[in-house]
Amino acid sequence: xxxxxxxxxxxxxxxxxxxxxxxxxxxxxxxxxxxxxxxxxxxxxxxxxxxxxxxxxxxxxxxxxxxxxxxxxxxxxxxxxxxxxxxxxxxxxxxxxxxxxxxxxxxxxxxxxxxxxxxxxxxxxxxxxxxxxxxxxxxxxxxxxxxxxxxxxxxxxxxxxxxxxxxxxxxxxxxxxxxxxxxxxxxxxxxxxxxxxxxxxxxxxxxxxxxxxxxxxxxxxxxxxxxxxxxxxxxxxxxxxxxxxxxxxxxxxxxxxxxxxxxxxxxxxxxxxxxxxxxxxxxxxxxxxxxxxxxxxxxxxxxxxxxxxxxxxxxxxxxxxxxxxxxxxxxxxxxxxxxxxxxxxxxxxxxxxxxxxxxxxxxxxxxxxxxxxxxxxxxxxxxxxxxxxxxxxxxxxxxxxxxxxxxxxxxxxxxxxxxxxxxxxxxxxxxxxxxxxxxxxxxxxxxxxxxxxxxxxxxxxxxxxxxxxxxxxxxxxxxxxxxxxxxxxxxxxxxxxxxxxxxxxxxxxxxxxxxxxxxxxxxxxxxxxxxxxxxxxxxxxxxxxxxxxxxxxxxxxxxxxxxxxxxxxxxxxxxxxxxxxxxxxxxxxxxxxxxxxxxxxxxxxxxxxxxxxxxxxxxxxxxxxxxxxxxxxxxxxxxxxxxxxxxxxxxxxxxxxxxxxxxxxxxxxxxxxxxxxxxxxxxxxxxxxxxxxxxxxxxxxxxxxxxxxxxxxxxxxxxxxxxxxxxxxxxxxxxxxxxxxxxxxxxxxxxxxxxxxxxxxxxxxxxxxxxxxxxxxxxxxxxxxxxxxxxxxxxxxxxxxxxxxxxxxxxxxxxxxxxxxxxxxxxxxxxxxxxxxxxxxxxxxxxxxxxxxxxxxxxxxxxxxxxxxxxxxxxxxxxxxxxxxxxxxxxxxxxxxxxxxxxxxxxxxxxxxxxxxxxxxxxxxxxxxxxxxxxxxxxxxxxxxxxxxxxxxxxxxxxxxxxxxxxxxxxxxxxxxxxxxxxxxxxxxxxxxxxxxxxxxxxxxxxxxxxxxxxxxxxxxxxxxxxxxxxxxxxxxxxxxxxxxxxxxxxxxxxxxxxxxxxxxxxxxxxxxxxxxxxxxxxxxxxxxxxxxxxxxxxxxxxxxxxxxxxxxxxxxxxxxxxxxxxxxxxxxxxxxxxxxxxxxxxxxxxxxxxxxxxxxxxxxxxxxxxxxxxxxxxxxxxxxxxxxxxxxxxxxxxxxxxxxxxxxxxxxxxxxxxxxxxxxxxxxxxxxxxxxxxxxxxxxxxxxxxxxxxxxxxxxxxxxxxxxxxxxxxxxxxxxxxxxxxxxxxxxxxxxxxxxxxxxxxxxxxxxxxxxxxxxxxxxxxxxxxxxxxxxxxxxxxxxxxxxxxxxxxxxxxxxxxxxxxxxxxxxxxxxxxxxxxxxxxxxxxxxxxxxxxxxxxxxxxxxxxxxxxxxxx
Length: 1419
Fold this sequence. Notes:
Layout: H1 2-26, H2 30-40, H3 51-56, H4 66-69, E1 78-79, H5 85-90, E2 116-122, E3 134-140, E4 143-148, E5 153-157, E6 162-165, E7 178-184, E8 187-192, E9 197-201, E10 206-211, E11 220-227, E12 230-235, E13 240-248, E14 251-260, E15 267-272, E16 286-291, E17 294-299, E18 305-311, E19 321-327, E20 331-340, E21 343-351, E22 357-366, E23 371-378, E24 381-386, E25 391-395, E26 401-405, H6 417-420, H7 431-436, E27 445-448, E28 451-455, E29 459-465, H8 468-477, H9 481-492, H10 507-529, H11 533-549, H12 554-560, H13 568-583, H14 592-604, H15 608-617, H16 625-634, H17 638-648, H18 654-668, H19 676-690, H20 700-714, H21 730-738, H22 740-752, H23 760-773, H24 780-796, H25 803-813, H26 821-835, H27 842-851, H28 855-865, H29 868-877, H30 885-894, H31 899-911, H32 913-919, H33 921-930, H34 936-942, H35 947-964, H36 972-985, H37 990-996, H38 1002-1011, H39 1015-1025, H40 1028-1045, H41 1048-1064, H42 1071-1086, H43 1092-1105, H44 1111-1120, H45 1130-1173, E30 1198-1200, E31 1206-1208, H46 1209-1212, H47 1227-1233, H48 1252-1266, H49 1272-1281, ...
Antiparallel strand pairs: 1-22, 2-29, 3-4, 4-5, 5-6, 7-8, 8-9, 9-10, 11-12, 12-13, 13-14, 15-16, 16-17, 17-18, 19-20, 20-21, 21-22, 23-24, 24-25, 25-26, 27-28, 28-29, 30-31, 32-33
């Protein structure tokens, strides 16, 4: 009712606004229109839209929901508890949304098609009149039961047929409207608004029982039938009740039990699990319950108990949702979906071997809308209803949106809000229940396998799952062929969404239907797109891909090709689309007619490469072999020719002979236009020799036979022609002449293959005979390829190689021919490494290798001879291996080689240092510093004639040394050489280098800088040496030079340097010198032009000198200067005077603040030290812990450690860390602790004065002798009882003489210090309170305390040692006392926090106090 009222108000408001706008427009009131536009931010419209434009516009969307409605079909559903950005920005955390019905959004038909169909069934006139409204619905046993506000209940079949009305004759009109329904096994239970329950037997349409007075002043909001005689019902107060129906002598009665009380937390929803009787969970009678905070799995048998619980999430102002799904064939494991707010999670219900029931999480999904209900359609699909009454179909596994249905709002969905709020009975409902029940629909939506029912006020909507074949046909009928094909292929592959898993349990049936549907779609798709070539190209691509996917390539011809018209452009498009499918091996066989037409198309359009490629990828048996071979020979399609001969005719020799004859003619007539045939032959020979034969179903023996035939053909001594002028082995020579290296590589690959014949020796003998013995003018490079091949084969197999061939190979390879140098060198190197140097004449090999510049071969020989210096020479000479020189040097110098070898390498490197620098100066510098550091001076002398290389080397040396902090280890003379070279090649870096470098002679470098006219560097050195006058003169001369040149950029740069110099050395200069320096600069700058740049420089100089020269003198100089061209009037010097005043104020503040800070630090340090000095100390022994001598034996001073041990002053003065040796403190700990100890020594030469402590000590000794075994705490407490004099002691200072400790011998005192263990039977006595503390001599009773007290202690401290708390006369707890003379800090001159008295250290009166700091606490 509230929703309808709001809707009516909105309609009336809209009509009023439209009427006002109409009047304003008719009156041409532009001002009013403008004000309205500004108020509602209406954009200006220059051209009014037409009626067609208005009709084409999208429906308006209210501002609140605009974010979530934008492109609703493309919203991403996020997994794993991550909320989407749209979700976080679209709604408030309270979960309150607009209750407005949104306009219908047309759902796009996407890849998944129409997953569900909606059917609206009107109840008006059939079950109710206009004054009645539907209030509850339930479904079971293929029947739908609907309850109305009049109390009537109707039964309807799933197809919408009305079965009849339930006999409600025993329902009293005062019972009110139906609030909930449940139906199971022929039993129907209905609750009414007055709290009455009625039970019917639907099979006989008979009323069984009426139950009244269930819960006073409450409404039953949900009923759940467990068994025929067992019912649960939920009331608006949140309580759950259990009813047991009984019948005795035809008298029916009931027993009601409260399972959950709403006072401890409301139960909001209850859903039973309907499961097969054969399932192991059936005996438990499980029910899912929801509260505001958790979901519980309730088992009713054998006794009610909670088996599992889950914590809920989301906004607590929304109702939680739970729904079960179980189908014995589709879903063997029951599934539970739990949702609230903007998230739902699916679970699987399981039971383990110990009969423990638990939920296993399957998937979590966060959405961008707030949920009203989430229900199962099938095991893979759920339907989520949002607060705008839109139904979203979501795949559970992929979390993809399948469809969005907006028609739910057409039926005016029935909400159970009034029942949850118990507005009829006026019951006591919590505020949380009232707020959360805004969208309560537990009794308005019901699900059954394959469909949903949504109850409206006077309508009911049936949402059923659409069969998958109907979805495809719907897309096809709507001309959405591409989506139809994709959806069909998804079902063909078993990946279709929106269907039950039962569909894919018979995949053969599904695929058979998909084949039929694909054919239908192809026919319609091609027929519809033949008029548009671009659309046809897309259609053909998708149709051919569909045929390939369903493994029916014959459909390409039977269903596609035959339906195409005979127009050439259409055929050409088909061939172009078909081509990539063939090349990608997706189609390997074609109809002979189609293949002939395709090859004719390639031939006609001169696409010979595509022609050949198609032949190689298709089954050749469907070809016209004779014509195809002619075409291949005519157009030089050699690969296709070989393929047809091999695959169709099983002939491997005829095509090879043809190609060899073609190659022979090309070589004979020097025809290079067909050079590719040779490489085709090489590839063919390689494939045949390794057994890679393009023929199917060949036996192993056939493969071996083919290998023999091909080998004999290639290596035959004479060809089939057997011409008298034909040379021996014609085909081998032909291949060697074509490409020696590639032919030998083919043979190498063939030898390495496992199926290759044992023909190594035969092939090697033939090759040696042809290339070495016959000497057919083969180049050294070709000979190199041969012996590279032989070396590699020798490394993997054993064959005989005559020594004469080795010598001939050496002569052929080691020539002065520049061509193929690297290949020949590599060939000889591999041969030497393979067969060994011993097979060669070593001296001859070395001589020829040096002549031919085969340095790698020379390296092998020198390494064998251990002549490592010559190996290094080989590295230098071999330009391709220069980067390996340093690794070799490190290898020798750091390896296990003799000193003689290392010395030779050292001498060689030093004498050839210029070569190393030329290779890499950084690596050379690193090598020198690591290995040849002692030879650095010699290296510098050797490079003296090459200063550029020397400078590059020294630059790297000093850079590396600086990083390693080893610059000081370098000879200063070398440093001077480096600086001299730097002044020559990089003079601009000299000054900056001198500032950071050390280890050079200042006078020598200064002379170098003066000679090189490096004024900045020389001025720095003068300044470093202390000659400030000479330094300033250089700076001044440099400034004068740039001023005369009038280059203002350099003037400013140089001026800043001079200013920095004057400011930096101001504290070293006398007043006259400072004024002389600064005023000379003023005179120099005042004489230049009056340009803006010059004025800025003058102001810069004046501003920087104000803090260093008297302001009055500066002002006087500016006014009276004869060269002054700028400061002539008051206006000119006004700014200067202002800057002077600012400077003075700043200096005054800085001086005062600094004074305050320093004085405050002094005061704080003094107070801290004074506090430590006046603090008493407990001494545990009178012997020095260093020398073990007595402290009293004439010593004047001693140290007291934090552990209370003593030491002579002279014993600890030599110690770096003054720590107690007896206690063995950790050095770090003792070093920090000693700072807190009494750093001053204590005088002990004062005369002895007996005190009250002596009396106390004697009493303690006597008591200890009499009461051995008692703990110290009890003894002290007993002594103190006799010594109570004054309890007004808070901060006592006791005067104690060191002689008081003499009566204690070391053993007794140590025993006293360790204390006596407390017996288990007795408890330690607590420390004495303020009223029981002894009245000893306080500090205020002795005016000469500081003079007479050698040892003082401010308070008594309690210590813990060895884990046992002990106390002694020197260790007790410091406590406050109101009568203590020092309790009032105003009278205590030594209090830590001085009060506002006349205390000279009071911070309020102290001139050092920090309150006077003008900079505040930041400093």
